[in-house]
Amino acid sequence: QSITKGKGITTPDSIVFANWKRLNDSSWSYETNMSRNFSLLPYSINDSAVCQYYNPEVLDPNKTRKIVIVLGKYDPNGYDISNDSKKRDLTNLLKKAVSSEGNISDMYLSAQADLSTVNTLLDQINDSVKSYKNISGEKIDFIEEILNGLKEKSKKYSQ
Questions:
Q1: Considering all CA atoms of the chain, what is the largest pairwise distance in Å, rounded to the nearest integer?
Q2: CB neighbours (10 Å) of residue 97?
Q3: Which of 31, 37, 54, 153 is least enclosed by beta carbons within 10 angstroms?
Q4: Cα 143 from chain centroid?
Q5: What is the distance between the alpha carbons of residues 80 and 131, in angstroms, rounded to a whole number?
Q6: Distance of alpha carbon 26 from alpha carbon 45, whole angstroms
Q7: Alpha-carbon gap, residue 134 to 73, rounded angstroms
Q8: 81 to each of 58, 97, 102, how far by Cα in Å?
Q9: pLDDT tens-digit profile of 126-152?
Q10: d(CA 126, CA 122)
Q11: What's the distance, CA 127 to chain centroid?
């Protein structure tokens, strides 16, 4: 089992099911063909595979990106590694939302990175709503700051 969404898990931006050989021989961002099945010759017979894609992100020098993938049994309590992960996640989202990301010259990759930030923020908001706890004013202000940063960055796509 591959658990693709939940507390502490990095949700993939896309998931592709395909013939293993075709997927293995392709470069980044494999495009499926609905008219092909997993056994269409000349490729391997009944040999399927799954690929999880995580959109690119611009990282500051000496920074790393952590992607948590869970294989195995589902845990309803989630997979958080540290107690302050939610606050750290929001802080990272704010940095992404307000950064210029000038290092990405490709508008498509830049849009993918921004979309990944939006999806992560939505996951954070959904987790807060599902917990049935009151969301603090500080957290709401933080989320609004992230949204304002994303709104400002979105102007570059209309130019």
A1: 59
A2: 20
A3: 31
A4: 18
A5: 15
A6: 18
A7: 30
A8: 23, 24, 31
A9: 877 777 677 778 888 888 888 888 888
A10: 6
A11: 15
Q: Which two tokens stand for residue 146?
A: 């992230």
* Tokens representing residue 144 in the block: 């609004």
pLDDT digits 0-9 by tens, 85-101: 555 566 676 666 666 54
Q: How would you classify the pairing of strands 48-53 and 14-19?
A: antiparallel
- DSSP character string of the chain: -EE-SSTT----SEEEEEEHHHHHHS-SSPPP-TT--TT-TTSPTT-EEEEEE-------TT-------EESS--TT---SSTTHHHHHHHHHHHHHH---TT---HHHHHHHHHHHHHHHHHHHHHHHHTTPPPPHHHHHHHHHHHHHHHHHHGGGG-
Long-range contact list for 110-116, CB < 8 A, 24+ apart? 110/156, 111/157, 112/13, 112/55, 112/56, 113/55, 113/56, 113/57, 113/58, 114/150, 114/153, 114/154, 115/13, 115/55, 116/13, 116/54, 116/55, 116/57
